[in-house]
């Protein structure tokens, strides 16, 4: 079967790092990602099923992996060679459409008794993601044993399956996984006023999730491109400003004082960073009020940031990783309510993966939001 | 004035050389020939009004005098705006006199259009005592000889002719430099010429040149200088020369008050008739020196620059 | 004898017409047969002896007022207030007429034995004046005599301890002005009446007042009913100020008003700028050469250098009249004198009104003309330079020419940036802006801080700019800015065009192919008397 495979090839990895620096997404051309004919993954044990991906999204963390910019933190919790793709809507052998909860926690790993976190339902906090019957891997799409969404076949444990209602299109369904992330992040927000930095897929979905979870919340969103502005406002932002205008907007909205160099005296109690770059975290630190909280929703990686304001203003920096099972139920309900399918701007067949990755890396500038692989028409899909 | 002083010294040295390098002495009992070149009040300065001399004066003014004055006094100019009502015609600048530096300070500070068409009334017995000093005075400061004590017909005619030809005049009506820092009574020359030629008198006050080089000193010492121009005065109908001269003196006194305190206080005192006189208290020398005190006014002049954006 | 202004019918042999274009110029060929150009009159002869005219005015007041010297006595409290940096435009050469008047007033005061004198820059919610600007306005003598003792200062409309509430008008408008002025035995107001909007009760009731008072006439409703605000008798803005003047009078505030008018000698009779106030067909070879050289030089210069050159220009205005005495009587005469210079009769309205916007408006002296000020100058000031009816018909098109860069002076206009980035991104409707944002901006602590301690316009000021244009926005069907940066022009809610021809094409969608065009040849200032 056809699959995009990411293998451990140091030379290519170095080339991808270099290319990724020059132009985001260029790592796909020279790096360790390649389209190959591989054997379908074996079912690891009882309770596992085969999933034929229909649509599989390209996520920011995938791009980081391709461009070689992701952290070495992941080294022990991924296993090579792996097939990326964790935003998956697929069908089972019996034809049911499902979305996969990609987190590979104790239950899929066959660990019994499960760890404290899993026992508590906090699968995103699972303490055994490198152990058990599967190769190490925090999610499908980073694990050798399960395959991933960027192929015509992968395997998943029953516990990972979320049925997709009839009325929900594949395009909408492929966004359930990222939306679940956003729902989870929104559940961590307790402040009355927040700023959301970033208006990519994650940023926009976070705005939607925040609006749904907290109807009275005051949301200031940043958006660089016109289509992002429109979507952010539609999905529930109270005001949308350009990235360079955020400090001033926050100052006006909060009526706080401002020093000559632009530093604010006050700020917002909550900031949701859906970008995860050094700049976005620095910006979040600049606009968070003393005693405020920064929610790191976008994956940060290795960044250099001046943490003095964190210390001087007692700002909390809180991560928001993935989701729990219940977040998917909320996400499914939300997807039924909101027309999020329009966020899928373009789909590509596997063989055009280089273009697909480049498009995803420049989605905002090219007027797009989410780019996905369309596997519904891959030739050998039904022959396996 | 250093140019002038060294000129004098050179002239003196030249006079000490033996004949034929110096002029011969006249034997006793011989009737000497009448002098062909006139000196003192009779010195003819017409050549100094011609183009080559004006060009040389312009070069000296901008190339020597201005840098020297800037180095010694960096003068501040006040009240130029009061001259806006004047047409471009000739005027008489009349000011107080402390120092040889006064002339260069004023000459470099007089605004256009008068700056390069101005002559100075200079003491005939001092500046025009021999040919070298006469020529230097006429060339460098555009001086014409004026008698200190009484205005004779000849020097008055010379000044009036020049004024009528469109030249402005700078005159120090005190008749000489102040001996002790206080002023001396104004004489009538400026008032007389203004009346005769029908031109306005611009009173002006010079402050600080006495600190740089007052009468009797040889080496200049840098200090702050301020030149304050007053509102132009015109003789009123039926006003006598002496009355007008008094009015000029009062105007300069008010400017002096303004330069040492501020304009509002000066106006208040002028209105109340309590403007301090230029000549200081009528008292022994030490009290006059004491009362002189430190009369320079401190002020912030620097405009605050805009923040760099 | 200066020639009066007139209306030129453009024909085939009419040369291209000069359009001011920010810190540059454009020469535009207007379509023959359907275009007119409204030319200002030549500068009126200035007074020969301004100081004598001032002294005469002080001694022979108009209306129900005693001469100034009779109003002054020892021991009294005297406050002299003067117009701020927003007048005149561009700033005038030294000596400023305010200096001359203030010195004359102080001379009279000194003679009368008045000791307690304060001098206040009546800047309402404008930015504070710097030392250099104050020196320019009042002169070094007055500055050095008063400022070091804290007796010459900028009015502070946010200093609650130094404001005095004097009552409300019959329309419920609150009147609150500077406490020192309100509690003085006499206010002498020294004004420059550059345009007919200035002066009268607007001097004291606006210049020395606070937000609490200003909001009653600086609002959308008032400005929509000021048609135009240059015509006092048809201006609700002025009616409100006159009502406030009534309150001032009843509260015992005594004002001795001194109003001065200037001719329109903006660019002088010598120097490179002269050409800008000549009629195009009278440009000599020398004029054309200087114009070409000036334009070529400017276009190659970085914008900062260009601004420095233009901001350094001081106009050689001549003073044409000085009136003093009772406010209303003085203002009647003053307005007549302003009209004598500026008013030019013109028959009938036009479909398309074109204007070239210069580098300066009342609120960017020594600063940057930001997009909001472009709107205010075009649809506020220039549009309202009419008496009778607007020069452009209702539903017509206004074409402005200005580069309109997305650029702000962060020191002078901090609240403008936020207004532009946030409020205008939301809506351009003045009523909605007023309802949604005005209060928040007016009461913002940081803007207040900058207004009081730095050199910033008050937080609410950009709203006033927008209100100034409401009558224009309401009246016209479309606004096009030629040569404007598209991003900022769109943010203003207008349409960008790269050339005048494009703009005329766009306009034809609204007013048809054979629409009539009128160009307001301004500056020098000209006001249309439309019949």
Fold and architecture overview:
The complex is a heterotrimer of chains A (384), B (309) and C (531). Chain A has helices at 10-22, 27-30, 60-66, 116-119, 170-173, 176-188, 201-213, 226-235, 246-254, 278-287, 308-312, 325-337, 353-361, and strands at residues 2-6, 33-37, 48-57, 88-92, 97-100, 154-157, 161-163, 193-197, 218-222, 239-241, 268-273, 288-296, 316-319, 344-348, 370-374. In chain A, helix 6 (176-188) packs across helix 7, helix 6 crosses helix 12 and helix 7 runs parallel beside helix 8 (226-235). The model of chain A has no long low-confidence stretch (mean pLDDT 93). In chain A, strands 3, 4, 5, 6, 7, 14 and 15 form a seven-stranded mixed beta sheet that branches. Chain A has 384 residues and is an alpha/beta fold. Chain B is of the alpha/beta class. Chain B has a seven-stranded mixed beta sheet with strand order 1-7-6-2-5-3-4, sandwiched between helices. In chain B, helix 2 (51-72) crosses helix 3, helix 6 (153-164) packs across helix 7 and helix 7 (189-197) packs across helix 9. The longest helix of chain B is centred in the N-terminal third of the chain and has 22 residues, at 51-72. With 531 residues, chain C is an alpha/beta fold. Chain C is 38% helix and 20% strand. Chain C has helices spanning 50-59, 68-71, 97-112, 131-146, 179-182, 201-207, 211-214, 220-224, 236-250, 285-300, 303-311, 327-342, 371-382, 414-426, 430-442, 445-453, 461-468, 470-475, 486-491, 500-511, and strands at residues 6-9, 17-21, 24-28, 35-39, 77-83, 116-122, 152-154, 163-168, 174-178, 186-192, 255-262, 319-325, 343-346, 350-356, 386-387, 392-401, 478-482, 495-497, 517-520, 527-530. In chain C, strands 1-4-19-14-16-17-18 form a seven-stranded mixed beta sheet, with helices on both faces. Chain C has a six-stranded mixed beta sheet with strand order 7-6-5-10-11-12, with helices on both faces. The mean pLDDT of chain C is 95. Chains in contact: A-C, B-C. At the B-C interface, helix 10 of B face helix 3 and helix 4 of C.
């Amino acid at each position: 079967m056809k699959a995009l495979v990411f293998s451990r090839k140091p030379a290519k990895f170095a080339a991808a790092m270099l290319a990724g620096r020059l132009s985001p997404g260029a790592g796909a051309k020279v790096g360790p990602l390649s389209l190959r004919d591989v054997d379908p993954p074996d079912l690891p044990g009882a309770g596992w099923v085969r999933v034929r991906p229909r649509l599989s999204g390209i996520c920011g963390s995938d791009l980081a992996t391709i461009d070689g910019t992701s952290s070495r933190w992941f080294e022990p919790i991924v296993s090579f060679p792996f097939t990326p793709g964790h935003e998956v809507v697929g069908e089972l052998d019996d034809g049911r459409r499902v979305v996969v909860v990609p987190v590979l926690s104790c239950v899929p790993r066959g660990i019994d008794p499960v760890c404290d976190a899993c026992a508590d339902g906090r699968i995103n906090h699972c303490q055994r993601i490198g152990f058990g019957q599967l190769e190490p891997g925090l999610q499908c799409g980073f694990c050798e044993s399960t395959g991933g969404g960027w192929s015509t076949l992968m395997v998943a444990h029953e516990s990972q399956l979320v049925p997709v209602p009839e009325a929900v299109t594949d395009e909408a369904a492929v966004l359930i996984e990222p939306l679940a992330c956003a729902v989870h992040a929104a559940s961590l927000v307790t402040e009355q006023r927040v700023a959301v930095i970033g208006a990519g897929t994650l940023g926009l979905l976070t705005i939607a999730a925040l609006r749904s979870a907290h109807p009275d919340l005051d949301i200031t969103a940043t958006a660089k491109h016109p289509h992002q502005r429109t979507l952010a406002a539609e999905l529930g932002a109270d005001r949308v400003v350009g990235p360079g205008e955020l400090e001033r907007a926050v100052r006006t909205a909060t009526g706080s004082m401002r020093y000559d160099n632009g530093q604010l005296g006050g700020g917002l109690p909550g900031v949701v960073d859906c970008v995860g770059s050094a700049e976005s975290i620095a910006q979040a630190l600049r606009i968070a009020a003393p005693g405020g909280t920064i929610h790191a929703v976008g994956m940060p990686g290795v960044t250099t940031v001046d943490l003095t304001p964190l210390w001087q203003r007692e700002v909390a920096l809180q991560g928001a990783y993935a989701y729990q099972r219940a977040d998917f139920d909320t996400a499914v309900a939300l997807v039924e309510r909101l027309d999020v399918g329009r966020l899928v701007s373009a789909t590509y067949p596997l063989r055009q993966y280089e273009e697909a990755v480049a498009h995803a890396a420049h989605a905002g500038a090219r007027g797009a939001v989410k780019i996905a692989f369309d596997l519904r028409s891959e030739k050998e899909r039904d022959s396996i | 004035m250093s140019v002038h002083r060294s000129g004098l010294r050179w002239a003196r040295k030249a006079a000490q050389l033996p004949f034929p390098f110096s002029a011969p002495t006249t034997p006793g009992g011989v009737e000497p020939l009448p002098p062909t070149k006139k000196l003192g009040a009779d010195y003819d300065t017409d050549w100094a009004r011609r183009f080559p001399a004006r060009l040389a004066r312009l070069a000296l003014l901008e190339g020597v005098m201005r840098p020297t004055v800037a180095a010694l006094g960096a003068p501040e100019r006040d009240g130029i705006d009061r001259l806006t009502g004047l047409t471009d015609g000739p005027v008489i600048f009349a000011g107080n006199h402390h120092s040889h530096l006064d002339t260069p300070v004023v000459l470099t500070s007089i605004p256009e259009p008068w700056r390069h068409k101005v002559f100075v009334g200079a003491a005939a017995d001092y500046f025009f005592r021999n040919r070298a000093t006469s020529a230097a005075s006429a060339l460098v400061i555009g001086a014409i000889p004026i008698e200190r004590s009484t205005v004779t017909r000849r020097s008055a005619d010379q000044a009036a002719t020049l004024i009528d030809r469109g030249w402005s005049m700078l005159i120090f009506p005190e008749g000489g430099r102040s001996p002790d820092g206080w002023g001396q009574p104004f004489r009538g020359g400026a008032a007389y010429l203004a009346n005769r030629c029908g031109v306005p008198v611009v009173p002006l006050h010079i402050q600080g040149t006495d600190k740089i080089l007052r009468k009797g000193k040889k080496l200049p010492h840098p200090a702050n200088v301020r030149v304050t121009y007053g509102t132009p005065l015109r003789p009123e109908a039926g006003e006598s020369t002496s009355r007008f001269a008094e009015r000029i003196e009062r105007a300069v006194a008010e400017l002096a008050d303004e330069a040492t305190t501020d304009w509002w206080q000066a106006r208040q005192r002028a209105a109340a008739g309590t403007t301090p006189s230029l000549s200081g208290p009528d008292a022994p020398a030490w009290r006059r020196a004491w009362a002189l005190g430190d009369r320079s006014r401190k002020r912030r002049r620097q405009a605050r620059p805009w923040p760099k954006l | 004898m200066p020639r009066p202004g007139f209306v030129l019918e453009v024909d085939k042999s009419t040369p291209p017409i000069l359009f001011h274009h920010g810190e540059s110029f454009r020469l535009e060929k207007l379509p023959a047969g359907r275009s007119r150009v409204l030319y200002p009159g030549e500068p009126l002869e200035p007074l020969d002896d301004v100081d004598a005219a001032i002294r005469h005015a002080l001694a022979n007041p108009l209306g129900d007022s005693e001469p100034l010297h009779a109003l002054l006595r020892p021991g009294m409290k005297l406050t002299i207030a003067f117009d701020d940096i927003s007048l005149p435009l561009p700033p005038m050469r030294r000596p400023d007429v305010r200096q001359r008047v203030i010195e004359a007033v102080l001379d009279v005061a000194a003679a009368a034995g008045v000791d307690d004198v304060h001098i206040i820059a009546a800047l309402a919610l404008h930015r504070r004046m710097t030392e250099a600007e104050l020196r320019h306005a009042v002169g070094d003598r007055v500055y050095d005599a008063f400022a070091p003792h804290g007796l010459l200062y900028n009015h502070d409309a946010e200093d609650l301890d130094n404001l005095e509430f004097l009552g409300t008008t019959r329309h419920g408008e609150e009147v609150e002005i500077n406490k020192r002025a309100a509690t003085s035995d006499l206010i002498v107001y020294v004004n420059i009446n550059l345009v007919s909007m200035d002066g009268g009760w607007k001097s004291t009731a606006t210049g020395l007042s606070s937000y609490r008072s200003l909001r009653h006439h600086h609002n959308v409703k008032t400005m929509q009913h000021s048609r135009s605000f240059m015509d006092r008798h048809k201006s609700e803005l002025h009616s409100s100020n006159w009502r406030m003047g009534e309150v001032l009078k009843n509260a015992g505030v005594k004002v001795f008003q001194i109003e001065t008018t200037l001719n329109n000698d903006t660019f002088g009779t010598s120097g490179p700028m002269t050409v800008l106030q000549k009629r195009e067909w009278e440009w000599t070879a020398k004029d054309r050469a200087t114009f070409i050289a000036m334009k070529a030089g400017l276009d190659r210069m970085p914008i900062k250098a260009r601004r420095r050159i233009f901001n350094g220009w001081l106009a050689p205005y001549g003073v044409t009249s000085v009136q003093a005495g009772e406010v209303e009587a003085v203002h009647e005469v003053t307005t007549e004198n302003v009209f004598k210079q500026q008013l030019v009769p013109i028959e009938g309205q036009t479909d398309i009104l074109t204007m070239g916007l210069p580098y300066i408006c009342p609120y960017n002296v020594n600063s940057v003309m930001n997009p909001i000020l472009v709107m205010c100058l075009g649809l506020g000031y220039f549009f309202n330079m009419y008496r009778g009816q607007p020069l452009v018909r209702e539903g017509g098109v206004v074409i402005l020419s200005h580069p309109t860069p997305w650029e702000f002076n962060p020191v002078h206009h901090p609240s403008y940036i936020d207004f532009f980035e946030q409020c205008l991104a939301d809506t351009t409707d003045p009523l909605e802006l007023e309802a949604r944002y005005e209060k928040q901006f007016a009461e913002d602590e940081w803007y207040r801080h900058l207004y009081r301690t730095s050199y910033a316009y008050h937080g609410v000021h950009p709203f006033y700019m927008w209100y100034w244009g409401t009558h224009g926005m309401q009246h016209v069907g479309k606004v096009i800015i030629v040569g404007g940066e598209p991003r900022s022009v769109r943010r203003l809610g207008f349409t960008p065009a790269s050339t005048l021809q494009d703009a005329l094409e766009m306009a034809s969608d609204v007013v048809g192919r054979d629409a009539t065009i009128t160009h307001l040849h301004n500056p020098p200032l000209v006001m249309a008397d439309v019949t």
